[in-house]
Design brief:
Elements lengths: L1 E5 L5 H17 L18 E8 L2 E10 L4 E9 L8 H15 L4 E7 L3 H9 L3 E3 L11 E7 L2
Parallel strand pairs: 4-5
Antiparallel strand pairs: 1-2, 2-3, 3-4, 5-7, 6-7
Keywords: Acyltransferase, Transferase
Organism: Kosakonia oryzae
Pfam families: Acetyltransf_1
């Protein structure tokens, strides 16, 4: 059975999942196209973080970084490969969106890579649409930028 719960960036299981995600992305893209963010460096009031537990083991995570303008950026969405194919990504994104909307966030944006086909399809299934680069990003041929209005 899977559960989605609140998390913090300092939890060892979250740190391990993010390290696995970083290794995966480092193998796909050069450093200048890896837009990695240290979630632990963010103020608590700007961060929404969730993890997926399976039998009390963390198998996925994702975050939203809230901006002062009512928008947010989805970051660090990752599901352990052995637990994919069970709609956990859709459930995690829905939980993040609900939490963001509850914090007065009206729009979510994200950046993902062109080689992450499953991630792009997941975001599209969840209603995200491709858009131009948004601040602080610059156009990058290895990046795909997406957005969804929450209200």
């Amino acid at each position: 059975m899977y559960r989605i719960v609140e998390a913090t960036a300092s939890q060892p299981d979250v740190i391990a999942l993010i390290a696995e995600l970083d290794r995966y992305q480092a193998a796909l893209y050069p450093a200048e196209s890896n837009h990695l963010l240290d979630l632990a460096s963010l103020p608590d009031e700007t961060l929404i973080l969730r993890k997926i537990l399976h039998l009390d083991q963390a198998v996925g995570c994702g975050a939203v970084v809230l901006n002062h303008d009512g928008s947010g950026e989805m970051k660090r969405v990752f599901i352990d490969p052995t637990h994919r194919g069970q709609q956990l990504g859709e459930k995690l994104i829905a939980a993040l969106e609900q939490a963001a909307a509850g914090r007065a966030c009206h729009t979510l944006r994200l950046e993902t890579g062109i080689e992450q086909h499953a991630a792009v399809k997941l975001y599209q299934r969840c209603g995200y649409q491709i858009r131009d680069a948004f601040a602080p990003y610059q156009p990058d041929p290895l990046s795909i930028f997406m957005e969804k209005a929450l209200r």
